[in-house]
Amino acid sequence: MPQEAMSLRNRALGLLARREHSRAELQRKLAAHAEDAEELIALLDDLARRGWLSDARFAEALVHDKQAKFGSARLAYELRERGVEESVIRDQLDGLKESELERAHQVWQSKFGVLPEDAKARAKQMRFLQSRGFSLNVIGKIMRGNS
Question: Which of 26, 56, 119, 137 lies at a C-alpha separation of 20 to 30 Å from 82?
């Protein structure tokens, strides 16, 4: 194997040793170090075939790390930004729908803790929860005190 290819493989393994990466994310990081695109694609295919690179495992790790702070919409957005396929995103987020209200309430409780007294405070709390990726339906329930 040529020295350049070995170096590219070592870079890839070093990145994967630190944390899980999506295929698109790893491809973007390694593109500057590859001599040509086919070499990089072949390496990524080999890593995936060996089980060292997995979008499903990456998505599972990201969702596990961030589910306590973010809603499903925000998690889906982050996964899409990292190049994860929609089918993998759906598989990972299907189980979170039941806990969305509970997670949103915990986030709201730690930030605010009391229902808003006026429209300005209500809008602020709603914007905060929306920015965290919770649905308007869930936010409405929290603002009505139905959590």
Answer: 137
